[in-house]
Amino acid sequence: MRAAPARDVFDPGAIVAQDVKQGPDLIEEAGPGAHRPLDDRFGRTLTYLRVSLTERCNLRCEYCALPGAQPRFDRNELLRPEEFDQLLAVFRGLGIRHVRFTGGEPLLYPGLAERVIQARALGFPQVSLTTNGYLLARHASALASAGLDRINVSLDSLDRDQFARITRGGDLRHVLRGLERARALMGRIKLNVVLLRDRNLDELPTLVAFAVAQGFDIQFIETMPLGQAGSAAVTERYVSAAIAHARIAEHYTLQPLSHAFDRGPANRFLVEGTGTRVGFISPISDRFCASCNRLRLTATGRLVYCLGHTDGVDLREEVRGGQTVERLAALIRARVWQEKPERHGFTEDGHAVLVRMMAVGG
User: Does residue 24 fall inside a structural domain?
Assistant: First the structure.
């Protein structure tokens, strides 16, 4: 039987003092040098990594998935816990400052708290989570103890019947209990609302009122041609962020805020007289690609450069093939420089042109 390839002893801090050549050159071994940012050829610095821990979800939201359909993967195709941790260490050494755990639904991943603990140990300045909140009451205490910074919870409606229609059978009470528990244990909580013309357009001021009353932040997101549900989400249900802003401004005074430190895509406002911040994310009506600072790692170990493109690189086989930390860092740096696109491909002359699974972490 052939022996397994030799592997260096993995040291999470090893790449902090390592570097590789910038640009589209062939991958080179890292050598001593300054810790430089991870850049692309369009002048953007990548500081934000979204990590999809699982492909599974316990809701089947209309804008994301077909009824009853779940992605199917052989267990061996999914990254193992130690492989997630190894790749996180590589990305931290490449200057990633913010790691966000996503899914599918990350609360279905049994090792979520351990991944948060490890991300903290690696020195990420910000560790956050996006969840549908359905199991949050059960896990909030462990996540707070693990050092989770911030949490985004999907909440597309406060009407129980409407929530059940959007999620195809979900019970709003589970999410509200999770929010109540998380509020008692964590810092800032942000609500994510996908704008849907036929479901929640008239409910936007009510959602803001709920956020103000609870001390939450809230952001409204234009629906995108993503997931199994496909481009119908845009062509039939689309609401622009400008329309959402106008609806809310009829009830609240919104004071503009500067962008967050990680240059996220939301246009942010403060609700006058409160501590609640309202954001509007507009990938369709107002592309924000020029300031994109993020990458996505799927549960199967594929690094995806853009939510609106299929380009990416398989890091799972590189890790399992025994690549050193330096070679992994060099591969990522070179491929991001060569292949991260200048802009997404969601629309072309106003029409959706791409359908993707949401398992790339949203």
Answer: no
